[in-house]
Structure formats: structure tokens, C-alpha cells
């Protein structure tokens, strides 16, 4: 990992570790929270550079923030962009360990 650009860390914010995201790991997929303005080619380049894997596909989605209440006051959670990254068969990303 000698040639990692700092902008890759701005694109990939963090891995998403939920029950659903661990189920898709059977299909060589990993879910990441990414920057809201990140494009699919940027996400692909960042994951390949940070984890040293071959990315086959990137699917993105924007989860809209929910309206919540706290002490009678309403507030809205921020929107979150997620990317489902499919890696090649021989490659694997272990999100339980840090980069």
C-alpha cells in the first residue's frame, strides 16, 4: 500500500457493519459509507487503492435521513450515501480490522 492518495480516505468514510451487510459478504460484496458527492469510478479507485483488491462493480444508494424527536423537539438525521462494492472471486476485504 505504498501509493495511497489522501483523497481516497475522503471518498470511503467507513465500512457499514450491519446484519444485512454481513449477509452480502457471501456474494463477495462489501458495503461502505461514502462521501455524498463521490462517483462510482472514484469509489472503485479508492477501494482498489486502500484494500488492494480488484473491484468488479459498484452500486450506490442514498439513505434519506429520518425525522426524529428529542425532548419534544424535532430534528432530522443527515442523508447517508452507501456503496455496495463487488470484488473479484479471489479477493477479500476484512472490514473487522482497520486499514
TrEMBL record:
InterPro entries: Nucleotide-bd_a/b_plait_sf, Ribosomal_uL23-like, Ribosomal_uL23/eL15/eS24_sf. Keywords: Ribonucleoprotein, Ribosomal protein, RNA-binding, rRNA-binding. One of its GO terms (biological process) is translation. One of its GO terms (cellular component) is ribonucleoprotein complex. One of its GO terms (molecular function) is rRNA binding. HAMAP family: Ribosomal_uL23_B (MF_01369_B). Belongs to the universal ribosomal protein uL23 family. This is Large ribosomal subunit protein uL23. It comes from Sandarakinorhabdus cyanobacteriorum. The gene is rplW.
